[in-house]
Design goal:
76 residues; mainly alpha; single chain; 0% strand
Length: 76
Amino acid sequence: MELSDKKYLLLIGNNIRKLREIRGISQFELATESDLSKNQIGRIERAEISTSILTLKKIADVLSVKVEDLIAEASV
């Protein structure tokens, strides 16, 4: 993975974490409501894995945002 790829994954993970915390939702709650595992949410937030657009859509739906908000450089 290129450094720029890692930075992009960090951006997405940080956006998800910030939006989740703003809404007062735990990783467990986000995982349960999006039908994902808590481990997967944590790994996405820490930029340890790349994820599919469909997974981002599930997360965005729970957070009541658009997928674009998860990938934007200054979304939060």
